[in-house]
Design a protein that fits this description.
Layout: H1 2-19, E1 26-27, E2 38-40, E3 46-48, E4 53-62, E5 68-77, E6 80-90, E7 96-101, E8 110-114, E9 117-124, E10 136-141, E11 146-152, E12 154-155
Parallel strand pairs: 1-9
Antiparallel strand pairs: 2-3, 4-5, 4-11, 4-12, 5-6, 6-9, 7-8, 7-10, 10-11
């Protein structure tokens, strides 16, 4: 009985490690997102950083065996927060999501969107984002609870 349980756990672990690998992300036009320039967001509306205040930013780091790179920047305009992805790239997976979380373990997270893009793009955050508490942007495989990558958002002066 114990041998069956150990073998079952081993098979489950192997499936978890190798299953998040099949959804191809759609590249977005790679346009610089610097003050005064534009990039296309998920709605197709240009993002103009010159009208926003940069609050925090962080570089993506790999999550375990998966590769993720690029930069996440958090902008504010009034009471609206926008999360900008620059030169973003990650390994393919079947159920990738973008989370905003308190840590890299997805503690107290909110799901922002199912990930469909690479390159430069942006997301307007919901009013309940609590950006002062959730300082990590996660690329997360929801189906297998696997971290693909993370960016810790730090105040602009702390970079």
């Amino acid at each position: 009985m114990r041998k069956v349980l150990v073998n079952s756990l081993l098979v489950f672990a192997l499936l978890t490690l190798y299953s998040c690998k099949n959804k191809e992300l759609t590249p977005v036009n790679n346009v610089d997102i610097t003050p005064g320039s534009n990039a296309m967001g998920t709605t197709g509306t240009p993002f103009d950083a010159s009208t926003q205040t940069l609050i925090s930013q962080g570089d993506f780091k790999n999550g375990g065996r998966y590769s993720t790179s690029g930069t996440a920047k958090l902008y504010r305009k009034g009471t609206t927060y926008t999360l900008v992805f620059e030169a973003f790239k990650t390994d393919q997976g079947p159920d990738l999501r973008v989370y905003l979380s308190e840590d890299t373990g997805a503690r107290n997270f909110i799901e922002l969107v199912e990930l469909e893009n690479s390159g430069n793009f942006y997301l307007t955050l919901p009013n309940n984002a609590k950006v002062d508490e959730r300082m990590f942007v996660l690329v997360w495989c929801k189906r297998f609870s696997a971290l693909f990558g993370s960016a810790e958002l730090k105040a602009s002066g702390q970079m």
